[in-house]
């Protein structure tokens, strides 16, 4: 069954898109990750232009994060003050990101920058996850205890404020910077950025793990909503039809994924996810260095 | 979506001249009459390309060449270069007035019925389209980029490389199928038929055709391009409602 995507202006197989949404949703439920970093490359692999893949991915992430954010909110796992400060950075970052996106698209380097960003991030994250899960397996045998509060250079920064929910008294600058970075990534890569934000909140800010996921989801919902609107206004690259089919698949897939995940041991899951991330990374890297079949390609005209 | 048609239904108006789309000259002077099975193709949610039938009649012998030309648009051709092991776009050349779609059909191999000079003069075929860069560049470069433009268009079937066949039914009536791929641009098209005799185009007739978005597709596209803010907010509203529904539905199940 073919459906015509109004913004991408192409005909795609409905079941393929639904299946992709379902597959990524399954993985995100299984591993507890957003899945944007897999969705965007997959859309690109089936021939959807990177500009549309990224902007539509942002829209789909809003849907995926809303339901998770609601669940965390109900359990009181959102630090609203921290979330708002992250969001200040996130809004600024995503604004800059969309501007950069538009500029790169006009000079014909957008595809390249998106692909390189993915190769770098997937490579680093996949590599770190791999090392971490191997270490975790070793650490379990030795039982090393970590100190609760380490004094980092971050604690010397000005504009300190109290985050009661996170039991922290730190400067607002690091959260703003983290939010900003994640906002830029979200706009250019079409990812929620949880994979960057969560470790940063735990290791850099020292937030308790109970509020980390809920707070990052809170910020992701609003930042990706901002990306969606900005992309729709400046580039007209958000495809509602595509996003809708993807999210139907993703929502259903995530439920099955979460159930499957409960039956599998965590360490094995992490090794699997690391392998998956590294595979996508390798495929993208291969596309960058392989001699293209045709050195010439058609592009879009900047001013139209 | 393949347009079903009945031969009789089409023969009738063609034979008896009931309001054909294009009528040329008095009878006996290389008359050429053509019409399409429909003049409007609607691009809706289930659009996956379209199939049209062109019908026509000539006065006696001769060959027929059919040209389908899509709306004009500006195209950018970019060339990749290897920098530090990575392929990236470097040079770019802009072409104005490029037909979004260009297809030919003929009743005999093109090179057998028309000499190259005549093809050039009548601008038939992608080699003879007026494809000139908007900025002046060296001829050799212009040629390389022009060839790349045609090649890229051919690869996605927007410039079908091989002409399709025009079939004669007897020696006066002819028909051909026109296929539009799903990626053909929306806009005004023109179908032109050339009547060829003795290596020369003796007459031509043309008829318009429009590809337009309809229903849901049209509304989504228009909103996205006229009011991006409303479109973006709508996209978010859909996402939020879908996410919320999912959380309600699966919570009650769990």
Question: Short description, anyone?
Answer:
The complex is a heterodimer of chains A (about 300) and B (about 250). Helix content of chain A is about 70%, strand content about 5%. By secondary structure, chain A is mainly α.
Sequence-ordered SSE layout with sheet pairings:
The complex is a heterodimer of chains A (304) and B (254).
Chain A: E1 2-5, E2 10-13, H1 14-31, H2 36-45, H3 50-74, H4 80-106, H5 110-142, E3 160-163, E4 168-171, H6 173-189, H7 194-205, H8 209-234, H9 240-262, H10 266-289, E5 296-299
Antiparallel strand pairs in A: 1-2, 3-4
Chain B: H1 7-16, E1 32-36, E2 40-43, E3 50-58, E4 63-69, E5 72-83, E6 86-99, E7 102-106, H2 110-113, H3 116-122, H4 139-155, E8 164-165, E9 167-169, E10 173-180, E11 187-197, E12 200-213, H5 215-226, H6 228-253
Parallel strand pairs in B: 2-12, 7-8
Antiparallel strand pairs in B: 1-3, 3-10, 4-7, 4-11, 5-6, 9-10, 11-12
Helix pairs in contact in B: 5-6
Binned strand content of chain A? 5-15%
Q: Using the CA coordinates, give the radius of gyration of chain A.
A: 20 Å
Distance linking N and C termini of chain A = 33 Å
- Average predicted local confidence, pLDDT of chain B: 85
Neighbour order of strands in the largest sheet of chain B: 2-12-11-4-7-8
Number of E-state strands of chain A: 5
The fraction of residues assigned to DSSP E strands of chain B is 35-45%
* Biggest pleated sheet of chain B: 6 strands, mixed
Q: What's the order of the H and E elements of chain A?
A: EEHHHHHEEHHHHHE
Major protein interface = A-B, 55 and 60 residues
Q: State the low-pLDDT regions of chain B, or none.
A: 1-25
Description:
The complex is a heterodimer of chains A (304) and B (254). With 304 residues, chain A is mainly α. Chain A has one domain. Chain A is built from ten helices and five strands. In chain A, strand 3 and strand 4 form a beta hairpin. The mean pLDDT of chain A is 86. Chain B is α+β, with helices and mostly antiparallel strands and 254 residues long. Chain B folds into two domains: 7-70 and 99-213, Immunoglobulin-like, CATH 2.60.40; 216-254. In chain B, 30% of the residues lie in helices and 37% in strands. Chain B is built from six helices and twelve strands. Chain B has helices spanning 7-16, 110-113, 116-122, 139-155, 215-226, 228-253; strands at residues 32-36, 40-43, 50-58, 63-69, 72-83, 86-99, 102-106, 164-165, 167-169, 173-180, 187-197, 200-213. In chain B, the strands form three sheets. In chain B, strands 2-12-11-4-7-8 form a six-stranded mixed sheet. In chain B, strand 11 and strand 12 form a beta hairpin. In chain B, helix 5 packs across helix 6. The relative contact order of chain B is 0.19. Mean pLDDT of chain B is 85; it is low at 1-25. At the A-B interface, strand 1, helix 3, helix 8, helix 9 and strand 5 of A face strand 5, strand 6, helix 4, helix 5 and helix 6 of B.
């Amino acid at each position: 069954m073919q459906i015509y995507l109004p913004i991408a202006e192409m005909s795609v197989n409905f079941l393929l898109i639904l299946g992709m949404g379902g597959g990524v949703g399954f993985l995100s439920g299984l591993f507890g990750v957003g899945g944007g970093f897999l969705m965007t490359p997959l859309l690109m692999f089936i021939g959807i232009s990177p500009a549309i893949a990224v902007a539509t991915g942002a829209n789909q992430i809003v849907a995926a994060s809303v339901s998770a954010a609601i669940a965390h909110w109900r359990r009181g796992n959102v630090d609203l003050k921290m979330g708002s400060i992250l969001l200040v950075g996130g809004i600024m970052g995503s604004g800059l990101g969309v501007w950069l996106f538009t500029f790169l698209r006009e000079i014909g380097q957008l595809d390249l920058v998106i692909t390189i960003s993915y190769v770098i991030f997937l490579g680093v994250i996949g590599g770190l996850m791999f090392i971490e899960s191997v270490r975790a397996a070793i650490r379990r045998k030795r039982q090393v205890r970590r100190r609760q509060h380490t004094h980092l250079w971050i604690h010397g920064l000005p504009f300190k404020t109290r985050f009661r929910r996170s039991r922290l008294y730190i400067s607002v600058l690091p959260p703003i910077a983290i939010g900003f970075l994640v906002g830029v990534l979200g706009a250019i890569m079409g990812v929620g950025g949880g994979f960057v934000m969560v470790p940063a909140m735990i290791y850099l800010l020292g937030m308790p793990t109970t509020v980390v996921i809920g707070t990052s989801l809170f910020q992701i919902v609003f930042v990706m909503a901002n990306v969606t609107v900005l992309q729709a206004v400046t580039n007209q690259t958000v495809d509602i039809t595509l996003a809708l089919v993807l999210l139907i698949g993703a929502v259903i897939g995530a439920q099955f994924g979460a159930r499957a995940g409960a039956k599998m041991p965590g360490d094995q899951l992490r090794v699997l996810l690391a392998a998956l991330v590294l595979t996508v990374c390798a495929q993208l890297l291969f596309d960058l260095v392989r001699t293209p079949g045709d050195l010439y390609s058609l592009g879009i005209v900047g001013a139209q | 979506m393949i347009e079903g048609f009945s031969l009789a239904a089409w023969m009738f108006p063609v034979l008896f001249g009931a309001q054909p789309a294009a009528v040329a000259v008095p009878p006996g002077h290389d008359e050429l009459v053509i019409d399409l099975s429909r003049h409007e193709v609607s691009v809706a949610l289930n659009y996956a390309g379209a199939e049209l039938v062109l019908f026509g009649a000539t006065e006696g012998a001769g060959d027929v060449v059919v040209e389908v030309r899509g709306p004009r648009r500006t195209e950018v051709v970019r060339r990749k270069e290897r920098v530090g092991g990575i392929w990236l776009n470097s040079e770019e050349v802009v072409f104005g007035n490029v037909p979004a779609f260009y297809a030919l059909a003929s009743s005999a191999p093109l090179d057998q019925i028309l000499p190259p000079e005549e093809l050039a003069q009548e601008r038939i075929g992608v080699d003879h389209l007026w494809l000139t860069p908007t900025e002046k560049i060296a001829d050799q470069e212009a040629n390389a980029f022009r060839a790349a433009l045609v090649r890229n268009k051919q690869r996605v079937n927007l410039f079908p490389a091989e002409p399709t066949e025009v079939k004669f039914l007897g020696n006066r009536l002819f028909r051909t199928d026109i296929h539009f791929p799903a990626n053909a641009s929306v806009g005004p098209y023109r179908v032109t038929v050339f009547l060829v005799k003795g290596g020369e185009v003796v007459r031509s007739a043309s008829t318009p055709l429009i590809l337009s978005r309809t229903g849901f597709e049209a509304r989504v596209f228009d909103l996205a391009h006229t009011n991006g803010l409303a479109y973006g907010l709508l996209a978010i509203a859909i996402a939020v409602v879908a996410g919320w529904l999912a959380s309600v539905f699966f919570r009650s199940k769990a």
